[in-house]
Amino acid sequence: MNGFLSNPFDDIPLEHRESAEQVAAYLVNVRGGAMFLSGADAQLLAQWLDEAIPVPAILCAIDKVAAKRRAKRVKTRLSLNRCKATLTKLLYTKTGQPVVEVQKVDTYVAVLAQWSLDIRNAWGPDSILVDEQRSFANRLDYASRQAWTREEFAENIIVWINDFQDDAWAQYGSLQMEWIEDAEIELQHLKRLLTGQRWVEAVEEVARDRLRQFFPLIQAQELWDRFTGVVDG
Predict the structure, then answer these.
(1) Reduced to 3 DSSP states, what percent helix, strand and coil does the chain have, rounded to the nearest 5?
(2) Rounded to two decimals, what is the model's pTM?
(3) Cα–Cα distance between 36 and 28 in angstroms, integer?
(4) Is residue 51 classed as helix, strand or coil in its secondary structure?
(5) How far apart, in whole angstroms, are the C-alpha atoms of residue 43 and residue 1?
(6) Which CA distances in Å does 228 have to 106, 109, 160, 232?
(7) Across the chain, how many H-helices and E-strands are there?
(8) 36, 23, 22: which is closest to 77 by C-alpha?
(9) CA angle 107-168-5, nearest 5°?
(10) What are 42-68's pLDDT values in tens digits?
(11) What are phi and psi of 218, to 5 degrees?
């Protein structure tokens, strides 16, 4: 992924580069478009990482904002800046106290085993990319046997989620021309406001969103919820 880090990332300390790449890759998987963060987003991301905001929380905020955009299509481009308020609500109460307490590392074996089982149980006769889903579930089983730190669990699983979403779009999503046509119809009311590349990106975001809805258990929000105890493990 190093190839898509452009000048705005030069201001991000080296110790945060890998995390920055993970966030950028996830944002692209959600919205489509080029592998690029704007200067404003890169600066904001550097601030969050300096403040030790967990990457899974940032990605969970992206998922939540994407869901809101699904309910009401907007002309603005999905960006990290538009996730700021959601991230704050995710992490803190109005008085500034943490909303949730992260689970202890020794509970992750059960959490990951249950997550893997839930994915397998969600398969049905109409499921798509079952082999890829099985591979992801197998990776969760593998992780459950590792003596990793919380950060190592998160880093590896985020890579696997990004890999899955990359593969899903390449193998299936980008080939569904009816999704593109449906997206163009859905966004028709915005067509005069979105021109050129921005229109293409908006259409792709809707198509990617449709694909992602097939895999609600293989998203960053699921990682954050399970690791913070929002979902019973």
Answers:
(1) 70, 0, 30
(2) 0.86
(3) 8
(4) coil
(5) 19
(6) 13, 14, 19, 10
(7) 10, 0
(8) 36
(9) 85
(10) 899 999 999 999 999 999 999 999 999
(11) -120, 65
